[in-house]
Amino acid sequence: MPFMRCARVTVSGMCALVGLWAAPAMAGPWARAAGDSFVSLQISAEEAPSDILAGLWEPETYVSLYGELGLGRSLTLGADIGRGEASREAIGFVRYTLTPPDAVWQMAVQAGAGARQVGDGDVTGLVRLGASIGRGFGAGGAAWYMPMRHQGGWTNLDLTATHDLDLDNTIWQAEATAGFSLSQSVSAIFSVKAEDWPDADPLVSVSPSILIGLGEDVSVRLGARAALTGSDAVGLTLAIWREF
């Protein structure tokens, strides 16, 4: 996904950035009930501010499909598929929620495997391990203060390590997310993400977005993203969320 870092990494394959926009928020530690599913289709684009000001609007785009299916017994099956101008990646995973559904704090671990291809290069195998912690909260409350009225929400921290079996290197990622319900159909989501890619400077980015419910099971997410360190790119995202 955007903030393509191909110029900052070696040709050995790590310009395969699937990263900054790949998985939607909402991954988190929560187990889906048996038979419940969630699908997100997202497109994102990014460009350097200097190019935008110069009228050189040729953004790099990334399209991703993310899905989850509840298996019961605290297990959730998921898939994360993405395609950009420089790379293609697909990972399937299983998440196991360690805590009971009524626990205030939710914790989960996950494991997955998949493949990545950079340009016309060879397909390489991937293994991903992760852990998540999160909690929901009610309306108001000083501990969850923000400068607007809200009706409750959630916060979570996701940690993942994706190891390339063929190139023998690892991508480390950590993302903290907070969501606030502003009305029955509108939520505000804020996230901060830190990434460490082989042969590249550490990358930290911020992403505010608005989630708008269009019906009982369909929502649209509109967002922006900017890097604080490791890149000068800015970007926009548009996603459609559907629960079944």
Strand percent estimate: over 45%
What structural category do the secondary elements indicate? Answer: mainly beta
The helix tally amounts to 1
Total beta-strand segments: 12
Please, what is the oligomeric state? single chain
The CATH superfamily bears the name: monomeric porin ompg
CATH class: Mainly Beta
CATH architecture: Beta Barrel
Q: From the alpha-carbon coordinates, what is the Rg to the nearest angstrom?
A: 18 Å
N-to-C terminal Cα separation, in Å? Answer: 26 Å
How would the global form be characterised? globular
Provide the number of structural domains: 1
- pLDDT below 50 for ≥5 consecutive residues: which ranges? 1-25
H/E element order: EHEEEEEEEEEEE
Q: Report the helical percentage.
A: under 10%
CATH fold name: Porin
Biggest sheet statistics: 12 strands, antiparallel, barrel
Mean pLDDT over the residues: 83
Spatial order of the strands forming the largest sheet: 1-2-3-4-5-6-7-8-9-10-11-12
Write the topology of this structure:
Layout: E1 37-47, H1 49-53, E2 60-72, E3 75-84, E4 87-97, E5 105-118, E6 123-137, E7 153-164, E8 169-181, E9 186-196, E10 203-213, E11 218-229, E12 234-243
Antiparallel strand pairs: 1-2, 1-12, 2-3, 3-4, 4-5, 5-6, 6-7, 7-8, 8-9, 9-10, 10-11, 11-12
